[in-house]
């Protein structure tokens, strides 16, 4: 399977479930031609082969393969099915920004602009082979089964199952099947978040992760487009923003708590990053 792009959905808001179903085609039948539906159409093939195109690109989807069609795209069959074919479809909306990124191992994550923001970019492969077909099939059966339930009974379950399905697709793309450099970058990120208050260096990170410092740096830059020390620096400043709003601690106390040795240096870094001093930032949110 050739490399496919990643469809990035920026959250918040979260994707919103619209509907789902199960379709079977006999030989000679084909997917309808449609355009500008206004919502995402996720296809998951269970049996046979589905021939479909979007905006000049074409795919032959086999058993256990998925394809995410875009809201503004033109979707059409490239030829009829040549054998009995069955697939699930899931329609969902996303009111936030979205776009396609090359499959480069990099999932760009937005920075928090407010002290309590929790931005995230959901990365769903345009086309993929399911890493766990049994788990996906169970989610899809339950999701489709809810269509016969009352709206009040089904609503929250439907939204939750959609998010579980998208999580399964995202993790299948970057989880156990991800290349070793990607897994190391994510281990490095987790280690930084757990130990950001400590005196971390590239060398102490490498020792803790059992890899050469230069290799850890290369993996982080490939995955997050920043070195471990750049990631650490930004994470410390984000934690400081929250403490400025949630505590009455002095700037010096906050600087020390998040890992800066000297308050003046912390204040300078904060202003260079956010264009405002720590005290002025605090006054924006506190009376």
UniProtKB/TrEMBL annotation:
Report the residue ranges that make up the HTH araC/xylS-type domain in this protein.
Answer: 186-284
Q: Which PROSITE patterns match?
A: HTH_ARAC_FAMILY_1, HTH_ARAC_FAMILY_2
> What molecular function terms (GO) are annotated for this protein?
DNA-binding transcription factor activity; sequence-specific DNA binding
Query: Known InterPro entries for this protein?
Result: AraC-bd, Homeodomain-like_sf, HTH-like, HTH_AraC, HTH_AraC-typ_CS, Tscrpt_reg_AraC-type_HTH
Question: Carries keyword Transmembrane helix?
Answer: no
Q: Which UniProt keywords apply?
A: DNA-binding, Transcription, Transcription regulation
Name of the protein in its database record: Helix-turn-helix transcriptional regulator
Species lineage, top-down? Bacteria, Bacillati, Bacillota, Bacilli, Bacillales
């Amino acid at each position: 399977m050739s490399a496919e792009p990643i469809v990035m959905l920026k959250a918040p808001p979260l994707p919103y479930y619209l509907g789902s179903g199960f379709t079977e085609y006999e030989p000679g039948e084909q997917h309808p031609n449609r355009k500008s539906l206004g919502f995402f159409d996720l296809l998951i093939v269970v049996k046979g082969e589905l021939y479909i195109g979007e905006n000049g690109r074409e795919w032959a989807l086999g058993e256990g393969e998925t394809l995410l069609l875009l809201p503004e795209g033109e979707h059409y069959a490239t030829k009829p099915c040549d054998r009995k074919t069955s697939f699930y479809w899931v329609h969902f909306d996303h009111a936030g920004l979205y776009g396609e990124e090359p499959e480069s191992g990099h999932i760009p994550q937005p920075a928090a602009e407010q002290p309590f923001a929790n931005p995230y970019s959901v990365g769903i492969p345009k086309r993929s082979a399911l890493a766990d077909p049994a788990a996906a099939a169970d989610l899809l059966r339950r999701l489709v089964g809810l269509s016969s339930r009352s709206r009040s009974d089904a609503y929250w379950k439907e939204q939750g199952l959609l998010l579980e399905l998208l999580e399964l697709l995202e993790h299948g793309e970057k989880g156990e099947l991800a290349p070793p450099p990607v897994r190391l970058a994510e281990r490095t990120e987790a280690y930084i978040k757990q130990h950001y208050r400590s005196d971390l260096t590239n060398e102490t990170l490498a020792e803790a992760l059992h890899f050469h410092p230069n290799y850890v740096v290369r993996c982080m830059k490939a995955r997050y487009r920043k070195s471990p020390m750049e990631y650490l620096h930004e994470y410390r400043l984000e934690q400081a923003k929250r403490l400025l709003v949630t505590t009455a601690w002095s700037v010096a106390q906050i600087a020390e708590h998040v890992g800066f040795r000297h308050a003046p240096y912390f204040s300078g870094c904060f202003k260079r990053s956010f264009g405002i001093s720590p005290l002025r930032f605090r006054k924006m949110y506190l009376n």
